[in-house]
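Service request form, structural biology core

Requester: graduate student, group of Dr. S.
Request type: structure prediction, single chain
Budget code: on file
Notes: please return the result as structure tokens.

Sequence provided:
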Amino acid sequence: MKIAFDALPLLGRKTGIGFCEAGQVRAMTHLHREHQYTLNYFAVKNLEAKKQDLQPYLDRHVKMKHAFCSPYGYRVVSGFLPVPYSLFFGGENQITHFFNYIVPPGVSGKTVVTVHDMVYKAFPETVRARTRHMLDLGLVSSMKRADRIVTDSEFSKSEIIKYYPDFREKIRVVPCGVDSQKFHPVQDAEAFRRIRKKYQLPEKYFLYLGTLEPRKNLENLIHAYAEFVKSHEHPASLVLAGAKGWLYDNIFRLVHTLHLESHIIFTEYIQDEDLCTLMSSALAFVFPSVYEGFGMPPLEAMSCGTPVLVSDAASLPEVTGTDAVIVSPSEISEIAQGLHRLFTDENLRISLSHRGRKRAESFSWEKSAELLYQVYRELLPEV
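Core staff response, request fulfilled:
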């Protein structure tokens, strides 16, 4: 087969969509080296940096193809004028996979699109206006063009069917994975010391890792943490790690309003090489999001042997099973009680650490890639 991947999510600072594509592409191209793969991308600036971003994925059977055009400009124009994608990337590929919701017009061969979740329908107030506008204009056309729609969880499949029942037969579930070579338990006291010094962290802390944005439910987490602090003379700190998303001002404002500046620590985007140590050093990982199509950070924390707290919303129980502390995202007292249990019950932390690692072993990028490969095989059974 000749398979092309839209490489835009792999460029620059990756989000969850980029990490999902990275895991599946790496595993696919290593497991099935008998096929030819191309990484397609639009770019008009920082060309050398973008080439470097794609170097880790290249091999004898994996090449990249660049079109000198603004990716955002093409997306906007193609939403109104059917400028064919094949004009830029030719017609030799038998399958082209787009990992970020939108299939452009005029793609030659079969097409696959990953629709990660329906948050823009379920919680539109938590999605930036530009993204909502893009999906309102292009998602239905995209799913019509696609020969298969891939999504990350059974929950997300049910959500797509709920809002777009006509596409039921096209949908296939391909769960994300976790890289156990990258995310594994660290027990090196010196490594812990270095990471705490680098990010100015205390010895005991709860860790949230992800974008600072409304649907992550950080305001309720902060209110719950305020309750937790009142109950303990020497509480663990709360570390909110990750890049600023949008509408994040209220999160910072709330910390000041509740006078938690000495207890809550904000870090910027965490460097990739620090993630495993940062997670392993944490007392527990907390992720009470109101909506996730999959939720990779809790799974990565579990792979590190870190106890996890998640909400009972969306796909998160599907990912963690019963191997996490599960709370209602809307019940502040319940989140606070979960923090209290994790802080005071060492036996619970030990149990969740062992169970979480075992749970994480059932999710790998190799398994994910094999399921995706079967989707491609459905489309080209004769090859």
